[in-house]
Amino acid sequence: MQTDRYAAGLAMLEQVDGRGGEEVLESVRAICPDFAQYLVEFPFGDIYSRPGLDLKKREIAVVAALTAMGNAAPQLRVHIAAALHVGCTRKEILEVIMQMAVYAGFPAALNGLFAARDVFDGQDGQKV
């Protein structure tokens, strides 16, 4: 069921990642359609749509949080790509990940750096 929150979330998801997240949403829908709806409505329809932070700042925060978690590499790669899409530079992303070594430890930061390398290499073949 498409709600106003869902429509707002899809529009925001398109702004964040430039692709609308359909591949991820379809894979989640195949397992649990309700979760796919929540995935659009809450983070993107409710939180990302709030005033107070622009998308670049939000993505910096998400990259930091996912790096600190240390166990969310697939999601981290998605949000590193999104951060680039909304205007973050590679240098900014690397600095955020390095900063997480102080708070989350070197293993989490290393995992984050490897995720960044994968995204950067996948975008244009440039080596970091």
Automatic annotation (TrEMBL):
Q: Which SUPFAM superfamilies match?
A: AhpD-like (SSF69118)
Tell me where in this chain the Carboxymuconolactone decarboxylase-like domain is found. Answer: 33-117
Q: Name one GO molecular function term.
A: peroxiredoxin activity
Pfam families hit by this protein: CMD
In terms of InterPro entries, this protein maps to: 4CMD/NDH-1_regulator (IPR052512), AhpD-like (IPR029032), CMD-like (IPR003779)
* Record protein name field: Carboxymuconolactone decarboxylase-like domain-containing protein
Q: Which organism is it from?
A: bioreactor metagenome
